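pipeline/complex-builder :: batch 7 item 3
reading input block
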Amino acid sequence: MNNKKILIVDDDEDLSFIISEMLEGCGYSTAHASTAEEAFTILTDSKFDLILLDINLPDSTGFEICRQLRETSSVPVIFASARTSEDDRITGFDTGGDDYIPKPYSMKELLSRVNALMRRTYGFGNESGEMGFGNVKINTASRTVAKDGVAVNLTQREFDLLEYLCRNKNTAIPKDKLISEVWGAFSEVEPSTLTVHIRWLREKLEDDPASPVYIKTVWKLGYILEDKA
Amino acid sequence: MNNKKILIVDDDEDLSFIISEMLEGCGYSTAHASTAEEAFTILTDSKFDLILLDINLPDSTGFEICRQLRETSSVPVIFASARTSEDDRITGFDTGGDDYIPKPYSMKELLSRVNALMRRTYGFGNESGEMGFGNVKINTASRTVAKDGVAVNLTQREFDLLEYLCRNKNTAIPKDKLISEVWGAFSEVEPSTLTVHIRWLREKLEDDPASPVYIKTVWKLGYILEDKA
DNA sequence: AAAAATGTTCACAGAATGTTTACATTTTCA
DNA sequence: TGAAAATGTAAACATTCTGTGAACATTTTT
C-alpha cells in the first residue's frame, strides 16, 4: 500500500492500540489521540490521509471535530460509535463524514471500510500509482519523480505538494487550501513558506524556473498545475 | 451541473418507487432495474453517477453486478440488503462497494449516505464549470479563458467581471450594479474604473475592441454581454 | 448645428502581490 | 555524534495589478 497515514481519535486506549496494530500490519501508518484537544494538536503539525473519529470524547464530540475539520479540509472521515441511533448516523454524514461504523465492530469490517474509502478517495487501480504531466512522471507508490526519464530528488513536502497539485491538475487552487491540504488541516505555516516550496519545485522540474510552463501562479489566488495534453 | 443520475437496482418495485420519488425530490434523476439482466441492459446505454444495489436479485446478486462493473468502471456503489451479517458487509466492500446500508433503512439515512458519497466522489461544492460565448470559453475551475482555443490571460478583476457578465448573458446590467457585484457592495470606486476594465476585456477578447461584438455598451445604463447563439 | 451629457482611451503612479535570497532551526542519517 | 539535508521564515526585491483623471470621441438634446 501507499503508506497512508491514519489518525485514530478514541479515548479507549486499549481499543485504539488494537486498531493501530491491525492497520499498521496492513501497511498504514497511524497516530492516536485520546481527546479532542490532543487531536487538534496533532492535526496542527501533521497531515493525515484518513481520520477515524470516535463520537464520544471526554472533552468534545467527534461531530465537532469533523465540523471544524471541514472548514479547511476534505480529508476522509469515518465515524465510530457505540451510539447506534439513526439520528447519530445521519448527523455523522451531514457533518461531512464519509462513513459511520457502529461499535462494536470487527477489525475485519473496519479494515474493509478503511480500504473502501481509501480506494474511493485516492484512486482505483492506482496500484501502479502513476501520474504525471508534460515530461514529468510521478510514482506515488515509490514516491519518486522523473523528468525526461531522469530521476529527480524531491523532499517529502515537495512531493506532497506536487502530488496534490497533480491530483488536481488544471484546477486553480487557493493558497490557503493548498496549505491546509499539504501541511495539515490546522497547520499555521506562513504563506511565504508555500511560495518557497513552489519555488523549489519549479527549480527541480521546470526548464526555466523563472517562467514556469507547468506550475503557474494564479494572481491573487494561488497556483495551478497546467497540463495541456 | 447538479443533476446526478442514480440507478436503483432492486426487485422490490414498491420500495424502488418510494426511493426514486425521494431522490428525485432532492434533485437527482433516477432509473430503475428489477433484475440483474435489466441492470446490465440499462448500464449498456447510459452512464450513471451512482448505483444503489440490492444484494438479493432474482437472477443474480448485487455483488456479482458490482464485480463486473468494477472491471471497467469506478462509479460509486452503495449496497442495500436485508442480509445483515458482517460477512455480507465485508464482501460488499471488498467487491468494490463504497457503502453498505442494512434494510430496513429510512429515506433520511439513505439520502445522507447518497449525499456523502456524491460529495466524496464529485467534490466538495465544486461549482466548477464551463461557460462561454461566441468563440470564448471560460473555465471557472482553473479560472482560465480561451479565445478560439488560445489561452487569454485575464487579471483577477477582469476575470470576475467577465464571469459576472457571462452568468448574466444577454441581460443589460447597470453600471452601479456591476460595480457593487464585482468590486463589492460598499466599494466606492469611480465609474470610470469600470469603463477601463471593460476596455481591457474588449481588448483581450474582441476582434475589434473599438466596435465590440460581445461586450456592448448600453447607453445611459451599463453593459451587456451579447451572445446570439 | 451647437451644446450638453455620456462613454472611451491613455499613461501613470502607487498599491498589492509574488519571488528570491539568505539564514536559523530542526530533522535525518551515516 | 556531527555533517548534511530539509524546513520554515523574514526582508529585500521585482512584478503585476488597479484606480484615476484628463483629453478625446460619440450620442443625445435643444
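note: Residues 192, 195-196, 198-199, 210, 217, 219-220 of chain B lie near DNA strand C (CB under 10 Å from a C1').
queue -> next item
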